[in-house]
Amino acid sequence: MNNAFNQTKEKSLKTFMINIAIALVGVAFVGFGIAFNSAAMLGNDAVAILYDGVRNICGLPMDSLGVVTNVVNYGIIVIAFLLNRRYINIGTFIYTIPMGTFVGIGSKIYEALNFPLILEFKILSSVVGCLMLFIGLGIFIAIDIGLDPFTALAMILKDKINSQYKTAKIICDLSSLAIGFTLGGKAGVVTVMAALFGGPIIQFVSEAVKKSILIHIKVQKQHFEYKK
């Protein structure tokens, strides 16, 4: 009986670690996407514009964006924790802790590619950046191990104003956009692309990951429990 219990525990731990690994892949894509969009200078999504604005007002170079991303995210976590700590969990830290590093790596990759500073390559970089950003968010959402800092903040706002999540999300996005743009963050074509295509692509990726990867993990787990 103890052996069966230990096997079940090991299987659950293995599944949990696989979920974390997949979530980190998603976070990496998000970080790379933010880096590519920022480097292309054609705008970014609302949250990344806030990162870029803080970087700009501090007079830091583009390769410091990863550090700034971490600082802003940690600040949001502190605010969310003080307002309603129940929305802060392990997923929040899995998303936040490595994010700055992935943004920094993405910036280095962009530099190594040495794209010509012409509009065509900036557009290409932005398209690739948006796709990586949306794919990464879709993967992280599909794993369902917790909320990123800004989603946690939106959930807290939803509770405070007694509204739907989408209303609170719009308020948070507009606030991030306004603050980031005021601080010197770059808004542009990518900002519009993120607003128009972000939701559908993220939802598509999230559902695809659930059907193709997560269902396989669950089937394996159920098969093990049945055999036991």
UniProtKB/TrEMBL annotation:
Annotated TM spans: 16-36, 64-83, 90-110, 122-147
UniProt keyword RNA-binding present: no
Keywords of this entry: Membrane, Transmembrane, Transmembrane helix
One Pfam family matching this protein: DUF6198
Superkingdom in the source lineage: Bacteria
InterPro entries according to UniProt: YczE/YyaS-like
Protein name: YitT family protein
Source organism of this protein record: Clostridium chromiireducens
